[in-house]
Hints:
Helix content: 10-25%
Number of helices: 4
Order of helices and strands: EEEEEHEEHEHEEHE
Strand content: 35-45%
Shape: elongated
Largest sheet: 6 strands, mixed
Low-confidence stretches: 1-38, 253-264
Structural class: alpha+beta
Amino acid sequence: IEDEENQEIQQPTAAVNATQTVTQGNETIVDNGNFGREEGADGSLASLSTLSITSTSTAEVRPDRLSVSVGVETNGTTAQEAVSQNANLTSQVIAALTGLGITEDRIETSSYSVSPIYEYIQPAEPCIQIYPPPPGCETRQEIIGYRATNTVSVTLDVPFFRVAAESSVPDVNAGQVIDAVVGAGANRVDSVTFFISPERQEEIRGTLIGEAISNARQRANIAAEALQMTITGVSSAEINPIDFPVYTVSLREATGAGEAADALSAPTQILPGQQEVSTTVSIVFYLGQEGTTNG
Length: 295
C-alpha cells in the first residue's frame, strides 16, 4: 500500500530576527535497519506499507545585523593630490564613526581605487569622414586628472535586538551612521544592507526543522489511525535547504559633501522589514498493523 499525504503548516508570525544569504544543502537521512519494524513474509522490508508526509514550517524573521557602505571620492590634477585629499576626508569619516561609539573592528575598507580621468579631444579642424582617418583627424584621449575612491563598510547590530547589558555595542542605527559620515565629508552613500547573523540563522534553522518534523509525525499518526494502522519507524527523511534573505537599500550617490549634507539635513530613517523563511521536510514512515510496537 502506497499512501502519500502532503501537508503544509503555516506557523504564526514570530518575532524571530533574521544579509549575506546563507543556503544549506539538502540533508537526507535513510534508515535501513529493522528496529521496531515488522518484516514482510519474505523476511525483507521491501513489502512493508509506507506513508509519505511532506510538512512545511514557516516564520516571519527580522534582520538582526546591518551594514552601511559609504565612501569618499576625490579628484586632483595628480594622483598624489587626489590620494592626499581622499586620505584627509576618510580620516574625518572614520573619526565621525568612532565618535558614535563604533569600534574599529566594526569598520573596514571594502574597496579602494585610484584611476585617471580622461577627456576626449576632437580634431581642431573638420576632417574628411573616411576610415582610417587621416593623420591629425583621430579622436584623442588625454589624462586631465586622477580620481581616488575609498569605500568603507560599517557593520552593526540592529537596535531592536541589541542587549542592553552589552555596553560595548553602541545604540546606533543606519540613519545616524549616514548623517554622521556625510557631515564629516563622505560624498558617497552606496547602500544599507540588512541580514541575519550566523548565530540567529542556526537558531531559526533548528526551530523550523524541529517544528516541521513534529508536524509531519503528528500528521502521520492521524493518517495511520484512520487506516487502522500504526507508525513503526522511518524509512527516510529529507530536509530542504533554508534560504535566508538579504535586504539591501540602494541609496542615491551624492555629488558632493555639501549637497549630501543638505539632502540629509533631517534625521535619516531606514528601517528593516520582516521576511518570510521556511523549510520543508519529506518523511517516509513505515506502517504496521495496530498493536505493533512503534519505532
